[in-house]
Design brief:
This protein has 131 residues and is an all-alpha fold. Helix content is 44%, strand content 0%.
């Protein structure tokens, strides 16, 4: 009886720690975005080396008017129908060059899941689209 109570308690603690680790934090996402702001803008609709990221969530890949995307990124949107959802961004940000072979994006990616979760939460604050 005691061992089942202990196991149940340990499982509850483990679940709690895992849930906290994956909990999005917009403030931490803003800090992670520092790695991106040399090439991307979120506060005004102005393209830099990379496209601005306002209303990114829900946008079809390679379709922001006024930005010259790589052929690979245009094809992801036009041919494959890729839309930037939270889930897609979480995967893309692991290794952008592997996700879209031929992309112009030089950034190698974010290794830590918590950084990806947080930056997506931050980017979501600049998007109107509901998921």
């Amino acid at each position: 009886m005691k061992s089942s109570i202990i196991l149940a308690s340990l499982a509850a603690i483990a679940f709690s720690v895992t849930a906290q680790a994956a909990e999005p934090d917009v403030k931490k996402g803003k800090k992670v975005f520092r790695k991106c702001k040399a090439c991307h803008e979120v506060k005004k609709e102005k393209n830099k080396v990379g496209p601005h990221l306002i209303n990114l969530i829900g946008r079809k890949a390679g379709t922001l008017e006024g930005y010259k995307f790589s052929k690979a990124m245009k094809a992801k949107g036009a041919d494959e129908g890729l839309v930037w959802t939270e889930e897609v961004l979480l995967e893309y940000l692991i290794k952008p060059k592997e996700f879209v072979k031929g992309t112009k994006m030089a950034f190698p990616g974010l290794k830590k899941e918590k950084d990806r979760v947080n930056i997506v939460a931050y980017l979501k604050t600049f998007s109107k689209a509901d998921e």
